[in-house]
Sequence to fold (548 residues):
Amino acid sequence: YIVGTCPVCAHEGAYGDQCEKCGSSLNPTDLKNPKSTLSGKTPVLKETKHWYLPLDKYQPWLEKWLLEGKKGQWKPNVYGQCSSWLHEGLQPRAMTRDLDWGVDVPLPDAEGKKLYVWLDAPIGYISSTRQWAKENNRDWELYWKKQPNEEDNARLIHFIGKDNIVFHCIIFPTILNAYGDYILPENVPANEFLNLEGDKLSTSRNRAVWLHEYLDDFPGKEDVLRYVLCANMPETKDNDFTWKDFQNRNNNELVAILGNFVNRTLVLTHKYFKNVVPEYTNPQAIDEETLDQVKILREAVQTNLDAFRFREALKEMMNLARLGNKYLADMEPWKVIKSDEERVKAILYVALQITGNLALLMKPFLPHKSAQLQEFINLKVSDWDLIGKKDILPSGHTLGKSGLLFDKIEDAPIEAQVEKLKAASKAAATKQEPQVAPAGEEITFEDFTKMDIRTATILEAEKVPKTDKLLKLKVDTGLDQRTVVSGIAEYYKPEDIIGQQVCILVNLAPRKLRGILSQGMILMASEPDGRLTFVSPKQAVINGAEVR
RNA sequence: GGCGAGGUAGCUCAGCUGGUUAGAGCGCGUGAUUCAUAAUCACGAGGUCGCGUGUUCAAGUCACGCUCUCGCUACCA
Fold:
């Protein structure tokens, strides 16, 4: 909105950001004789004060702490994104805003200033800890402050998505470090994005699975969702949540492998030994070897959890149920019972130990079902360290009342969810009233008539090289044929718009974009999400017709 | 356009510092089995490791070029 004389080449029509004559990029304050393009008056420089985080000053520290210190430790996607930012060079970042809503800047000379959300939000992690500590009679500083002995420090780990990497890896650590005695994030195992039925999640488009609705639709299945989300976690690249996959994983994995193993063990114990854990006499090598596997699987789960490989950890947990199924299939207690009840006692003893250990091993992933299984088998203790014990359910122990841990999900509710999703996003798309831009300032009729808008036809269109959004158009305005550069390439392909009739502002001052002189501006309807659509006469009219 | 991450069986992924016939789970096929929610167990069929060139005795694994997906960034009169 500002023109003036270029300080480099003395061209008089230079813009506030760039001089087209010499191509220099400028700041508005660099211009000599600046004038407003709206009113023609000389702009007044108004100061607005903002507080900055001088990230540039901490660049050397970040390079050492992050680039050197976290190399090979942080996930490639996280480390790569951070090093990309650091290589571009950090700039001071404004931490205050001129807004009429938000958290006030708590400084005497900061009237009307609000804190930038990403200064504020991570500090909320600390204040919420303080609040929690207060309510629970704990010392919050143990969780955030550096302790006299480094090994006593709390470990700070941020579980986030990739869109939050910069705030948790660069900005927040810089603040913590600058402040002084706070611990720093040990790791930030950010995930990629999870899509929903092949498209991005979007709460504004109501393209989401709302948790309260899920719990209504699938009561008691909170752990099923946990399981599917964990098994499908976008740890290395974007992934897709589909209801079909949800159903398959429930039916083929939770029901068929885990639930089924538990069920058959408990049913057999009930049938043969009246729900009491039998004696473990004359164990065979296979029995001991099978029980030895439990500890190995626990180690595998643990190692993977420590390394934030949750999908793999989950798979190892399921392997314990697989081990149990295989053991039962190999031992065939339902056959042996006909000839050797003593042997069946040992077999079911082993199967029950696997079940007991499984109840504990699944706890990090399926907390509700873990508790439920503990009730089934009347297991009161739940320490992780117990996993591997070969007598977690000792002989003579009476089991509880059992049922089914998981049940099958039929096609109908799954299809209903898919339909619901479609209907919801369709409804959201048609509604769409909110967040249209408010009406602009009142202008006079003369102001309006200054704009000469005409109908025109696009004759040629090509993408401007090295840009994503720009198309170079040749249009027939009725008056002439001229070149217009337009930022519509995301929504229109060049070959699709040739012959398209549009409206064009013909008396707009020409402007060079990417080295191409753009003479005029194509009128577009711009929706809140940024989508653009041509504003065109409904019926074909001559080129050059005045639009009023 | 620049930068980052990813592209390995139908699907989701593993393959560390290059080394014999590329692995797992689910799905699929065949067989076994019946204690179990037609669940389970065994066996099997599926892969030009995105494309190309190069380095090497040897490349999914290294180098260069290209291509596709996601993200950050620039351009959007």
